[in-house]
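Can anyone check this?
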Amino acid sequence: MSTYFIKVDRDSVSAGDDLERHTLTFRLPIDSTVHQIIEHLTLKKYLVPVAGFNHSWQVFIGDKIITSFKGNNVEPEKSPSLDNSVSSYLDNGRVNVYIRYQSAET
């Protein structure tokens, strides 16, 4: 079965979080959806829990926001983009995902 490379990176949330690399690369079948990328990241516990409230993570593929996670939720916010085929986001044979941390307003 043919697969695509998925490369994921995310922001750090603290100095201690910088001790390890955040880049994760894996493969998914070519008929996968964006939601399956999110499921894989959830199973790997990719997003670290953060103390406090009202923070979020924004999930980008390229320059498009695909979805977000509010607080420490393991389920993303509903978004029609989650049903999109991974193939629609290919960039030189792979899909590049970036997850940006948004701290709570103080």
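Reply from J.R.: I decoded it. Residues 31 and 85 are 7 Å apart (CA to CA).
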